Predict the structure.
Amino acid sequence: MALRQILNDNHPVLRSPAREVKNINKGLLRLLDDMLETMHDASGVGLAANQVGVSKRVLVASSGEESVIELINPCCLQAEGEEVGVEGCLSVPGQYGEVSRAEKITLLALNREGHEICIKAEGLLARILQHEIDHLDGVLFTDKALRLIDPEEMQGEEKSEEKDGEKS
């Protein structure tokens, strides 16, 4: 496994839809492993392949509640509800925004063995997966943000949560 460089939001690979994976081979499995290591090293909760410069429809995610999820060619079958929440991104360091997402989603994808899987997610995991699928479509959270949040405002919220003992 190896750490990969995370591209910043001005990189053209992040603005182009990723290509569908045709074959699962050793190179793709190595990419998944590298993405997991890179995501963990950056203290992230999700990472799309194009964020590390690889234009393939592959993502990894972990909401902390679930084990790590690796998805190849994910597509959303169903989305329910709507919820606004604050998001950040490893490719847009230091920026946060309020983004509207579906509360619950159902995805179809392949796992690393090439088997078709159906994932039902809600809450934070649903938000993470939608964020990463947007990356695969060439869309950044800043494109969908209802409003961007000043980093100082985020620090103020974190401090008040620590004071109240609610920081998770």
About this structure: The longest strand covers residues 69-80. The beta strands are 46-48, 58-61, 69-80, 83-89, 92-101, 104-110, 116-122, 147-149.
